[in-house]
């Protein structure tokens, strides 16, 4: 521990200590303010991510419905192709007679 020679040295050391404490308090306030801003920004980003996730879910559901409809259409097309081929064979037989 440093020994002080006189009151002025003690007073100067106390002044420096006070200045350091004030600087630390200001830094702490700035850090707290920055943390609050970061928390608000994180909340906004989280909310936006939730909205994007919901949109992706809706798009996925729509995509699945479209795939289902396409599969149904493909099945109907296969049935119609079978009917057309059957009629073409019947027509060919009738023309061949």
Task: Characterize this entry briefly.
By secondary structure, the chain is an all-alpha fold. The chain has 1 helix and no strands.
Give the helix/strand layout.
Blueprint lengths: L6 H90 L1
Q: Uncertain regions: pLDDT < 50 for 5+ in a row?
A: none
Number of strands: 0
Amount of beta strand: under 5%
Helix percentage range: over 70%
Mean pLDDT across the residues is 95
How would you characterize this protein structure?
By secondary structure, this protein is an all-alpha fold. The protein has one helix spanning 7-96. The model has no long low-confidence stretch (mean pLDDT 95).
Observed structural traits:
single chain, rod-shaped, 97 residues
